[in-house]
Amino acid sequence: MAPGAPTLLLLLWLLWFPDFPPHAAGCPAACRCYSATVECGALRLRVVPPGIPLGTQTLFLQDNSLARLEPGVLAPLTALRRLYLHNNSLRALEPGAFRAQSRLLELALTGNRLRGLRAGAFAGLAQLRALYLAGNQLVQLLDFTFLHLPRLQELHLQENSIELLEDQALAGLSSLALLDLSRNQLGTISREALQPLASLQVLRLTENPWRCDCALHWLGAWIKEGGQRLLSSRDKKIMCAEPPRLALQSLLDISGSSLICIPPSVHVEPLEVTANLGEDLRVACQASGYPQPLVTWRKVAQPREGQPRAQVQPEGGAPRPGGPGASDTGSGMLFLTNITLAHAGKYECEASNAGGAARVPFQLLVNLSQQQQLQLAPPPPPHAGPVSHEPLQEAGSMAFRALGLATQTAIAAAIALLALTALLLATMICRRRRKRKKAPGPPGEGALFVNDYSDGPCTFAQLEELRDERGHEMFVIDRSKPLFAEGPTEAADGTAAGLGQGLPLQPPAAYEIHC
Question: How much is the pTM?
């Protein structure tokens, strides 16, 4: 080899593979590295092997035992274009797991154990063109699951267990050309779910247990009008699984008048229950209709912050994924534990399906025992009259209406007793005041004195009216006049002489003035 041959080969390598220099970190153990590609498949790996060259564009990690992707494990591989993780044991994708792979074009996750897709699982994959999720254990696709994939063209979801596709699950997929939902458990699909797919060219819906009712009427009409261009001859065989009279018939062969729904009817028995404080309560709401109605409970009056809310579960089991009340069982159970006054009030059981909705009210009253009433009663104010030990409730409040009849009667009697006591006290006070006004005072009481800084009081008889130079009135005390006139002498028979026979004369009143 000529002396300059190694240098020439190095230059040629850098020219052809600028993102994968030959002096990179090398290959992970047991992996093969070539032409910006790393193959680590079928090695029983449990974690992503360290030492993957930073310039890798294609990474094969299929047929291993990867159970999860550790946070940040793929962050250094910013040059990835294709990532193959199929046939592993991945159970979940952490939000932002692929955030650093902004150049990724193809992601294969087929044949794993994914049960759900979290919001943000595909954040950062703005350039992704193909996403393979077939052969997992997905049960439902929630709203905005694929919102971060604006350039996605192929979405493979076949061979899962998807039975719920929410209306906004495919929002943001305006570039999607192929959607494969075949071999799932879909019973229905809404028109709103497919509306975001403006570029759709291939749609696969076969081998699902379709429920051919009024909710699916739009799909048959849409396919007949123009949607059939999206379906191959095999994909047009959308077979009905129910109702029994339409089973094994093609949706396209059924007239629209045969796709019917029966609006729900609801039954709750009894419509009113009185429970004791601290008890548990279980109320069944039976609903019928076709398709099977979705049954939910709600409290009519919005509870305040911190008050308990009603929990709804299907009869005989826990609710399905999606939260309380999401189970389509036809029988919703209202469970209330450790009942308090906050639980009292009006509830509503609602059943809904594609044919409509029906509601039935339910009233819960909470009864208090005598001991509980004493515990809830406020302490009596000091120096007060007789006080009832019943807890006072405003008559128009929800808590008062929710109490039992016996408790309401006792509270009303206590309020009436308090009002009568207050009325008696007011009457006694008024009588005492009247007696004090009528009682005669001692001689000289109410006398008006003028204080001229001399000894002794004076009467109006000792005041002489004068005027000063400016005409202002002024009074001058004449001390030579007697202070009190001598009272009349009583006759031997007890009558007073002078003004009238038989009428006692009152002594003249003197008024004291203080200046």
Answer: 0.60
**CA separation for the pair 87, 486 (Å, rounded):** 130
Q: Which CATH number fits domain 27-208: 3.40.50.10490, 3.40.1350.10, 2.30.110.10, 3.80.10.10?
A: 3.80.10.10
C-alpha 500: how far from chain center: 91
What class does CATH assign to 262-301+327-371?
Answer: mainly beta
User: Are the beta carbons of 297 and 334 closer than 8 angstroms?
Assistant: yes
Over the stretch 386-416, which tens digit does the pLDDT of each residue have?
A: 544 444 444 445 455 556 676 778 888 889 8
Residue with tokens 């912050």: 305
**Contact of 457 with 447, CB cutoff 8 Å:** yes
42-94 pLDDT, tens digit per residue, is: 999 999 998 899 899 999 999 999 999 988 889 999 999 999 999 999 999 98
Using alpha carbons, list the distances in angstroms from residue 485 to 444, 506, 509: 12, 11, 10
What pairing do the DSSP bridges indicate for beta strands 311-314 and 331-336? antiparallel
Half-sphere exposure of 355 (CA within 13 A, CB side): 16
Structure tokens at 412: 């009303």
- Residue, of 102 and 303, whose pLDDT is higher: 102
Residue ranges of the chain that CATH labels 2.60.40.10: 262-301+327-371
The structure tokens listed for 203 are 């749609």
Distance CA 244, CA 240 (A): 9
Q: Quick one: how far is CA 321 from the chain centroid?
A: 18
Residue whose pair of structure tokens reads 């202070």 in the numeric block:
483
- Could you tell me what percentage of the chain is helix, strand and coil, using 3-state DSSP and rounding each to the nearest 5? 20, 20, 60
Amino acid sitting at position 132: Y
Contacts of 220 (CB under 8 A, 6+ apart): 251, 252, 254, 256, 259
Peptide bond into 291 cis (omega under 30): yes
Domain with CATH 3.80.10.10 in the chain: 27-208
